[in-house]
Input
Amino acid sequence: MAKNMQPVLKRCRTLGISPAVMGYTGKAKSNISNRNPGGQRRTKKSEYALQLNEKQKVKFVYGVLEKQFRAYYEKAEKMAGKTGDNLMSLVERRLDNVVFRLGLASTRREARQLVNHGHYTVNGKRVDIPSYQVRVGDVIAVSEKSASSARFKAMKEEDAFVTTPKWLERDKNNLLGKVVALPARDDIDFEVEDHLIVELYSK
Output
């Protein structure tokens, strides 16, 4: 499990990410600003700095450490199609991210923790690996034992606040979802220039 102890809102501002992407709503949405952290004078970033920022942004959003992220890049490079699109598809298909995108956890961080604790099943079998790659046709659900807890019962009532991407289908009554397609580039819920990440790793 990727552990990141940095303050989420501060890190979001530094990387230029809306806190809403991380699952933080309400006042947090307005906390993000374009000004330089700490009120320092804005300076033009170098090409390397821009590339590094995009990589750090994706790693932070998905909670992935460098070694694993590099492995995703190397796998994406070997796949057919654009490396950047493949890379984003791979991180988007992580089980912890899918749990979050289905509204079965409040944040990706919470999703990673709950997956680690065995609260979800894939095709009826418990999976406790956050990086598990889902496939088309997979059914992700809250385990029968966990579904009776107050935490998950409340999720049924919060369905109106969940916006599910088109590559996933959500059954709010049974706290489960299905992967109906592979995620496309426009399914990513935050802005990222993945070509800069490709350029950084391809040097």
About this structure: The first helix runs from residue 8 to 15. The radius of gyration is 17 Å.
